[in-house]
Amino acid sequence: MLRLKGIAKSFPGVRALNDVNLDVRPGEIHGLLGENGAGKSTLIKIIAGAYAPDQGEILFEDTAVRWSSPREAKQRGIHVVYQEFVLFPQLSITENIFVGHERRTRIGTVDHARMRREARELLERLGVSIDPSVSAGSLSIADQQMVEIARAMVRQVKLLVLDEPTAVIAGREVKLLFDRLRRLRAEGVSIIFISHRLEEVFALCDRVTVLKDGELIATTDVANVTRERLISMMVGRELGDLFPPKRTAPPAMTPVLRTEALSVDNRVRDVSIALRPGEIVALAGMVGAGRSELAHGLFGVLPISGGAFYLEGRRFTSMSPAKAIKLGMGLVPEDRKSQGLAMQLDVAANITGPALHEVTRRLLIDTESEASIARHEISRYRIACRGPQTPVATMSGGNQQKVLVARWARICRTVLIVDEPTRGVDVGAKAEIYRILRDLSEQGLAILMISSELTEVVGMADRVIVMREGQVTGELAGTEATEQNIMNLATIERAAGHA
Amino acid sequence: MTDAVTQTAEAAARLGPLPRLRSSVSRFGIFMLLPALVLLGGAISSTFLSAGNISNLLLQLAPLGIVAIGQAFVMIVRGLDLSVASTMATAAVIATGFSGSNRDVAMITVVVLATSVAVGLLNGVLVAKRQVSPFLATLATMILLQGFRFAYTQGAPSGNVPPLFRVLGSEKFYGIPYDFAILLVLAVIFWIVLHRSAFGRRVFIVGGNPVTGRMLGIRTDVITIACYLISSCLAGAAGLILSGYVGLVDNWVGQGYELDSIVACVIGGVSLKGGRGSIPGALAGAAIIMVAANEVLLFGLPIQIQIIIKGVVIVLAAALYAR
Amino acid sequence: MTGSLAAVRWFRAHDSLVGVTLLIAAVCILGAGTADRFFSFNNMVNVYEQSTDLALVSIGQTLAILTGGIDLSVGSLISLTSCLTSGLIDGDPSRVAPVLVAVLALGVLIGLVNAALVIGLRVHPLIVTLGMSAILQGVTLFYAMGPVGKVPRDFSFLAYGRVGGFPLGATIAVMLCIIVALLLRYLPLGRQIYAVGDDDNAARLAGLPRSRVLMLVYGCSGFCCAATGLYLAARFGSGQPYTGVNYTLASITPVILGGTVLRGGRGGVVGTLLGAFLISLVNNLLNFMDVSKQYQLVAQALIIILAVSVYMHRREPT
Fold first, then answer.
1. Hey, which of A296, A368, B134, B281 would disulfide with B269, CB 3.0 to 4.6 Å?
2. In sequence order, what are the residues at sequence separation of 6 or more whose Cβ sits closer than 8 angstroms to the Cβ of residue C159?
3. Does C202 sit within 8 Å of A95, measured CB to CB?
4. Can you name the residues that pair with A92 across neighbouring β-strands?
5. Cα(C63)–Cα(C176) distance, rounded to whole angstroms?
6. Strand A257-264 and strand A274-275: pairing?
7. B136 Cα to chain C: minimum distance (Å)
8. Parallel, antiparallel or unpaired: strands A280-284 and A463-468
9. Which of A468, A470, A465, A466 is nearest to A493 (CA)?
């Protein structure tokens, strides 16, 4: 169906792809693996027509093609579901699904009623029960992902590319997605599936291709390869344990943070948890369970609608980010590009962000001391960049995340909240971030780690608190904290009726 | 997948035609175009490079440059200030509203300052606290001031500008216009404020992404309001200077300056989307507009062509430089 | 779904239309209480008529703003078309029809040029249309430095005539609004206007024909400007080179009042029409109350501020 030969692509200063070959057969689910920066997304954008390759040729359905725009590729039957959603926030779900492919009546006008009907049916089949006339911007991330997938389903696709489709969905929705994908495969559609979760690759894919540093490492049948072999192909070395050893000594007895029937913005209700210094507590649950909202409530971004929390013994019923920072709290948000980093600034500015007063002398910024602080953190966390003046926009996801961690680790005294600390981060950087978090906890910080990756939760946490629909469903520690138990608590059906 | 490659690529893709030319030109090209224009002027007209013409140019550049500084602050914080021209005109009307002698200079300055502060506060509060779009808020303020101005002057303004302002607005010392000196002083001060102070850093952060700003503990509303205050106060000052240049009172002093200052900023690299820009860039943009207008005047071209050329320059410069 | 739930949903989705209507009602009530003959049928028809020019140009502006852009060249284009109309016809009734067609075509053409510059040079529409505004103004001044030409009586009928008791010009504006509203709702390209306005980058990745969308939008805006120019020529008897100057910024207010957000992606022309009517209504009321022209400006600005800060502040996405 699709054959790429000798594809090369460079951007100013970066060589993204070098002599890459890819071969996707009709009726095949082909996995694409590789660390961040390996060139996967560049390759996809070339397939989609968003970029043109510098060298090499593309053969689609056995004819050489040269896309001039994504539009052309789409018209030929290629559809890509990107990892960063490209939904239209103000448009309704129906319109998002059908934009560009509006259903027409016999006289050629847009048939709104038919689109509404089809959208509703499609969403039901994907397991999403949402009114399709709602605007897409108001949806949870998981639902947005499903809308993106629904969009792919209404096109006449010959080649479907899915970039990390399961990053934000789990359980039932993943199962339904996989069923649909298998059905498409049976119809002869080719599917390229990208995921960091190797268990999914093994469950779904027929063959898999591994990229590393812009080069093709191997293409092999899934049946003929092991998990360890795949990891070593991706990383190029044998990785030791991904997770650092957990703490052996018991933590201090007095909690540094304790919530008392805390409700946040009417989305989190009646939460009572405690964090002790030196602990890493994971907050697990499905996307949409209210975990980030709880964090935002503690940090003062969202309003507290009920209850209170105690930090170092002081009682609070309201909070603001400025106050939280003064109290020694820190928050590494879920979306580093749109919430965490000042994307147009450099490393130094991002590191000193919340602590500007430290480098301000007589209202002016002391660039020297700011740069030296930055250099210190760069070497401490092994951040890969040219120096303190490197614009963060040019750095890889893993290094950007390190900048954020460095920013808060410097000034946090009490609680550090990290929300999806390794999302979109390559394996190598993941290990480093885990080490950093464990070191910080050993120095006395209490760390609240929100994560949807169960392996990460089990691997890192001393204790696991599970949430669902805005409330805590349970707490697990020690040997009880297995992936299965966590999943159970995360998907528990409540006795009271659903909305 | 948000890796370095993707972002560089997306930035490259967004640049449009002539990408390599644009990316190298974009950062520093603005400072290449200006000398090029100057050389062109000198080549074509012998009077262009004369001391007299240059100092006249600087004289006329000052009010626009001052307004452009303020506009740059507002644009960087993701806003727009359409009320500057109206503020300038109001300042001019106030300048002529007293006895016309130097006794009232202090009084005039105080009243203009108070008015500018009020305007800036109104703009800032509407935008920051009521989430009104800057375009609309400052448009409304502009009309509001216009109304008050007309009501006050009954459509027939009268009075004299105090001699001090006349000197500042139209005289020179050793060939350097006073108002250009004022511009330089203000430019240096506000360059320091924007690019070296903690406040300026916060302006960039908030303008780049208000959500990030909040999460860093920055009072985004205070920063926004402060920028609008800067813009309207600078506009007030520019209005006083321009009234000194014009000499007689006029309800329409500064007309067109709001759009001209926005164009100057855009040409100078201040992004309409916020979070990016510089004071030198804004001033270079203002200079380009003025130099181009001056050259066209010197060519002796009819007014129609002058206006057309202005339009063409705007579009071309933005095509090459705007981000 | 129960009927009341659907009704609530409809109100929520069209909250700006409801808001404008309520404002109109409020002004009417205020006016009826303050001055008799304000709320009379004749006066309302008067207001309807007075809003024609603003309505015509604002309909085109709505489309430009819906795509997240703006058209600042409307004022100069109105000046140009109005001068060309009266200048070319110059009193000769046989020339009316061809000039009409030519001027409307010219409007569309200039709109297409705007779109081409935005697409080809990748410059923000604000800058492109601003530059075009200067260029058009210069061209207009080439053609005429003062009032030019005259129009025959038949042509003036466009502005002053009545059809079934209602002013012809205003009725044409309403019909234009309806046509555009239908285009927006039932033409696939029309739906895509909202998508492009909502997120331009997403539209590009989704493979939407951005170029065609922008051409449609700015072409229509140019058409509306030409229509406004024709109307003004009919109304004043001759074209003036600076006649359009105030319309540029004035055309934006009805669009915003009518619920279209400046960022693009949400809104519509029906609200704009109501917005134009509201402004005309307020002006009319102030005239009745014998408020001097100067304070009328103040009042207009206050209304804008009031409207936006009360019912609009939720709508602009932060």
1. B281
2. C52, C168, C169, C231, C234, C235
3. no
4. A135
5. 13
6. antiparallel
7. 8
8. parallel
9. A468
Q: Is the separation of the CB atoms in A397 and A36 below 8 Å?
A: yes
Complex ipTM above 0.95? no
How far apart are the C-alpha atoms of C268 and C271, rounded to whole Å? 6
Q: Where are the beta strands (DSSP E) in A406-458?
A: 415-419, 446-450
Kindly state the average pLDDT of the residues B304-315: 82
Q: What's the one-letter identity of residue B42?
A: G
Task: Please count the other Cβ atoms lying within 10 Å of the Cβ belonging to residue B312.
Answer: 15
Query: Does residue B23 sit within a domain?
Result: no
Measuring CA to CA, how many Å separate A485 from each of A254, A450, B234, C214? 27, 17, 64, 54
DSSP 8-state class, residue C264? S
CA distance B124 to chain C (A): 13
Phi-psi region of B275 (alpha: psi -120 to 50; beta: other; left: phi over 0): left
| pTM over the 0.90 mark | no
Q: Are strands A14-24 and A2-11 parallel, antiparallel or unpaired?
A: antiparallel
Contact (CB<8Å) B1/A424: yes
A411 CB-near residues (< 8 Å, 6+ apart): A325, A328, A330, A354, A355
3-state secondary structure of A327: coil
Q: How far is CA C188 from CA A71, C182, C211, in A?
A: 16, 11, 14
Would residue B126 count as lying in a domain?
yes
Among the partner-chain residues C9, C188, C205, the one whose CB lies closest to the CB of A70 is: C205
Residues of chain A contacting residue B2, judged by C-beta atoms under 8 Å apart: 36, 84, 337, 397, 400, 424
Backbone region of residue A218 per phi and psi (left: phi > 0; alpha: psi in -120 to 50; beta: other values): beta
CB B287 within 8 A of CB A355: no
* Consecutive 10-residue averages of pLDDT for chain C (318 residues): 67 76 84 78 86 94 94 95 90 86 96 94 88 92 85 80 83 93 90 90 84 95 95 88 87 87 86 91 82 71 71 47
Q: Which of B153-162, B310-319, C19-28 has the lowest mean pLDDT?
A: B153-162
* CA geometry: angle B109, B115, B116, nearest 5 deg: 85
Q: Which residue among C117, C253, C256 places its CB closest to the CB of B315?
A: C117
Beta-carbon contacts of C181 under 8 Å, excluding residues fewer than 6 positions away, are C268, C269, C270
Does the residue B4 lie in any domain?
no
Architecture of the domain delimited by C15-314: Orthogonal Bundle (1.10)
User: Partners of A475 in the beta sheet?
Assistant: A465
Q: Do A164 and B2 form a contact (C-beta atoms < 8 A)?
A: no
* Structure tokens, A268: 């989190």
Chain A 287-316, CB below 8 Å of chain B: which residues?
299, 301
Residues 6+ apart with CB under 8 A from A498: none
Nearest-angstrom CA–CA distance, A390 and A375? 11
Q: Minimal CA–CA distance to A48: which of A124, A175, A152?
A: A152
Which of B80, B4, B96 is CA-nearest to residue B271?
B80
DSSP string, B128-139: HTS---HHHHHH
Q: Which chains lie within 8 Å of chain C at 3 or more CB pairs, if any?
A: A, B
Residue A109 burial (10 A CB sphere; 0-12, 13-18, 19+)? middle
Report the sign of the C-alpha dihedral through residues C171, C177, C181, C182, in that order. Answer: positive
Give ∠ CA B85-B90-B96 in degrees, rounded to 5: 130
> How far apart, in whole angstroms, are the C-alpha atoms of residue C53 and residue C59?
10
Residues A16-39, mean pLDDT to the nearest whole number: 81
State pLDDT tens for residues A259-273: 988 999 888 888 999
* Residues in chain A within 8 Å Cβ distance of C9: 133
- The domains of chain C are located at 15-314
